[in-house]
Amino acid sequence: MSLYDVDVEHAGRRRTVWRWFLLHPPADYAWAVLAVLMWLGLAWLLKQPLMLEGVDPGARRTLFQTLATLAGATAGLTLTSVSMLINVLGKKAAPGQRELPLEKLTALHRRQIGEVFLFAIPGLGLLVVAALVAVVLEGDGPRGLWIPESVVFVLTFASVLALLRVAWALRRVLAIATA
């Protein structure tokens, strides 16, 4: 198997699953929905409050405000990374010098790296909005609302998966650039 024109030994099923995860960002939402459904199902079976319904209103508000802040800051950082990535991937060697390692990437690989970053930003933006909406909808009520909380957690889980992919892409770009 070859990724970014670097030969990689096939290490069995684990490598194939990891590669599938890297190349299919929209599946993040399916994994996140599955995780939240399992959480809801387990709470329902154990006759516990769904999501964070039974948690103190102040703690819920703090959690959602913190998620909104972290998602906004991370979206800004990711957007900044995109502009830096454009400069790095677009840099060409001076005439007469040997080709830079990142110049060896194909157009497809450059697009895939860019899509990793660009896919993460809308999810983080939606998380900011959903977390703030949850804060407003729940207000100071004694019980939380499980539907907006579920939406926030789906977006949180999906954003974490997208950020794992962003970290991988940054690591790969750094490895290729310093090769």
Overall pLDDT level: 84
Q: Which value, in Å, is the CA radius of gyration?
A: 20 Å
Count structural domains.
1
Estimate what percentage of residues fall within beta strands: under 5%
Shape: elongated
- Which stretches are poorly predicted, pLDDT < 50 over at least 5 residues? 6-10
Strand order of the largest sheet: 1-2
Main beta sheet: strand number and arrangement?
2 strands, antiparallel
Instruction: Give the end-to-end Cα distance, rounded to a whole number of Å.
Output: 19 Å
Write a structural description.
The chain has a two-stranded antiparallel ribbon with strand order 1-2. It starts with a strand and ends with a helix. The chain is mostly helical. It is elongated and about 70 Å long. Helix 3 packs antiparallel against helix 4 (107-138). The protein is built from 5 helices and 2 strands; from the N terminus they run E-E-H-H-H-H-H. Strand 1 and strand 2 form a beta hairpin. The chain is 72% helix and 2% strand. It has one domain (2-177). It has helices spanning 13-23, 27-45, 57-90, 107-138, 146-177, and strands at residues 2-3, 6-7. The model is unreliable at 6-10 (pLDDT under 50). The longest helix is centred in the middle third of the chain and has 34 residues, at 57-90.
Keywords for this entry:
elongated, two-stranded antiparallel ribbon, 5 helices, 2% strand, 179 residues, mainly alpha, 2 strands
